[in-house]
Structure formats: structure tokens, C-alpha cells
Amino acid sequence: MGLNTPTDIEADLQVGATDSGMVRIYLNGPEVDLPLDFDPEDAEAIAEELRAAAAAARKVRK
């Protein structure tokens, strides 16, 4: 499966700080239960990638 492959999978997404100073992205659904922990610097890099992807998606929609 790639970025452009449609899917009907549904999952909940939670993002927050852990009590150990990490940033957790948590995916939970019928087919997935995945906690992903990142140090703050990596989390900021992921946030930048998300912003860049959102900007690119906006250009495709126009």
C-alpha cells in the first residue's frame, strides 16, 4: 500500500506529551493499536512535514 492507495481502514489518532518527555502519536482502531514515541525535535520535524504535505494537498485541490 502506498500514499495514493485508497483504503477504508478507520482509526483514531491521538497526539500528546508523555510523562517521560516524549511526544506520542497513538493510532487505535479495529486493525491497529500503535503507539509511536518521538523526542521533541523529531516531533517538530514531523510537524513540518505535515504542514508541507498539507500545503501540497491544497495545491492539488485548486
Tags for this model:
alpha+beta, flat, 3 strands, 3-stranded antiparallel beta sheet, 62 residues
Describe it.
- This protein is of the alpha+beta class.
- The chain has one domain (12-61).
- It is built from 1 helix and 3 strands; from the N terminus they run βββα.
- It has one helix spanning 40-61, and strands spanning 12-17, 23-29, 32-38.
- The protein has a 3-stranded antiparallel beta sheet with strand order 1-2-3.
- A hairpin with a 5-residue loop joins β1 (12-17) and β2 (23-29).
- The chain starts with 11 loop residues before the first strand and ends with a helix.
- The model has no long low-confidence stretch (mean pLDDT 95).
Bulk shape? flat
The proportion of residues forming helix, as a percent range, comes to 25-40%
| Widest sheet: strand ordering | 1-2-3
Strand content: 25-35%
Radius of gyration: 14 Å
Mean pLDDT: 95
Instruction: Give the strand tally.
Output: 3
Integer tally of domains: 1
Order of helices and strands: EEEH
Q: How far from one another are the termini?
A: 26 Å
Q: Which stretches are low in confidence, meaning pLDDT under 50 for 5 or more residues running? A: none
Q: Helix tally? A: 1
Structural class: alpha+beta
Largest sheet: 3 strands, antiparallel
